[in-house]
Each structure stands twice: as structure tokens, then as C-alpha cells.
Amino acid sequence: EDQVTQSPEALRLQEGESSSLNCSYTVSGLRGLFWYRQDPGKGPEFLFTLYSAGEEKEKERLKATLTKKESFLHITAPKPEDSATYLCAVQATPLRAGNNRKLIWGLGTSLAVNP
Amino acid sequence: ETGVTQTPRHLVMGMTNKKSLKCEQHLGHNAMYWYKQSAKKPLELMFVYNFKEQTENNSVPSRFSPECPNSSHLFLHLHTLQPEDSALYLCASSREGAPLAKNIQYFGAGTRLSVL
Description:
heterodimer; A: mainly beta; B: four-stranded antiparallel β-sheet; about 55% strand
């Protein structure tokens, strides 16, 4: 069964303390892996898409990497405004026609960055 | 501003009420989605519309009734809901048929629904 697991469930950092969030996945074939950020009371905001093992993408203090089993979201020198829930989702290779839109979501990592 | 607008932002309704959620996208996308987000659960896909045609219904109870009059508007009609239906309802849109790099779902801010 296709599955996405994120860890840790919650993370508290001091401002400037770098760390990584993990998203491990089990799918028959990976079409794409997506990272989103969600602030309280808002919808998920798209951050990155990764498609193949070895791929990396960066945006400001965030860097996403991908292997055949997992993805990491590295946060370098975080600031309080980076506090949010970070969601990971996977799109699997479709097994049948018309079934290629469904994203399999993790539960997210709630990140709090203290000043 | 994501280009996907949902109204209302908050809704409180009794179990016998009928209400509707509205979603409008200004991104030129051709696919729209309804998701349910509950605490301690991953996002649950409810319905998918592609070019106004419903292409997925993930075993959603009939008390939820979607409507997609065109590629820019999506509604979720609610009637005789249960307290366990209280959740954040999210609308998203994407460009189906585009290269993978552009086939990304963009979300609205959601409607926080409370069923009393």
C-alpha cells in the first residue's frame, strides 16, 4: 500500500539552529514528491517538487533533497517566520488511466522557531 | 494570495441546515479538487473535476454534493451533516495535461466548518 510518513511530528528550534525534516515514502513508482508549507488558518502553500533520486531544490533557507526512499527538507539558520506545518505528498506512477492526480499525504511536521 | 479563493472562511451549521461552500480559481487551471483536513489525519481527497467533469469520488457520503459549472468555479453543497464532518475544507486547482513540472496543486485558504 502506498504510504507517506513524516518525522518528527513536531520540532522546536532556536532561531539560527539548523535542522532537517524527514519524509519517507513507499509507492509502487514515484512520479513526483511535493513539499508544502501550511500556516495556521490557511491552506497549504507549494514549496518544491522533486522527481528523481539525487535531485535537490533550494529556496531561501530551505533545501529539499530526494532519495529512492525518502526526502529531506533542510532548514538552515531558521527564523521565527519559518514556523509552520510542513507537509509532504507523493504522486505515484498511475496504475490505470485517469488515476494520476491523487496525492498521498503525510501528517506533516509542526515546526516552531523561537526567537 | 494564491489565486484560489474560498468562501465563506468560517461556517457554523446545524445538522438540519443546508449550506454551500464556494471556490473560485483565477489561475487558468482546468482541474479542481475538494479536500477535507481533520486533526491528526492526512489530507483526504474528496472529489476531483477535470474540465468540469467529475473524475474522482473517494467514497464520500451523499450528504456532500459537489458542483462544477465551469473550470473556474467549484461548489460543495452540504445537507444533514454530522458533527464528525467538522473540519477544514480545502479547494485546490491544477493544470492537467501540463508537463509534470507545472502539474502542481494550488490551494485556497479553506473553509472552517463546525457542525453543531
